[in-house]
Amino acid sequence: MKIEEIIREKKGTILDVRTHEEFQGGHVADSKNIPLNMIMDKVDEIKNFEKPLILVCASGNRSGQAHRYLSSIGIDCVNAGSWMDVNYYQSLTV
Fold first, then answer.
1. Which residues are CB-neighbours of 45 under 8 A, at least 6 positions away?
2. How far, in Å, CA of 69 to CA of 40, rounded?
3. CA-CA distances (angstroms) from residue 93 to 7, 43, 87?
4. pTM, whole model, 2 decimals?
5. H/E segment holding residue 16
6. d(Cα 91, Cα 56) in Å, to the nearest integer?
7. What distance in Å separates the CA atoms of residue 36 and residue 33, rounded to the nearest whole number?
8. pLDDT in 10s for each residue of the chain, 94 residues
9. Which residue in 27, 48, 51, 92 is deepest, having the highest Cβ count within 10 Å?
């Protein structure tokens, strides 16, 4: 399933892996924020999120790192890249 379809069908959880400060500067509505450097410490919390996880950051680099780790431990997730792209896709569903 494509990222656009997941968002359009309101499936999963959008997880922003940028810093709290970056997140406060702008983010996708209803997204959750766990910075990349805290992902390993928050795995139990992350496992409770509705899947698939839609991972975002500023450019796709950090969300790519989170994707590699989370998928390696069996968590259903996709690297959606920039939060602004996901924000755009979400705006089309309103």
1. 34
2. 9
3. 8, 29, 10
4. 0.95
5. strand 13-16
6. 16
7. 9
8. 688 899 889 899 999 999 999 999 999 999 999 999 999 999 999 999 999 999 999 999 999 999 999 999 999 999 999 999 999 988 887 6
9. 27
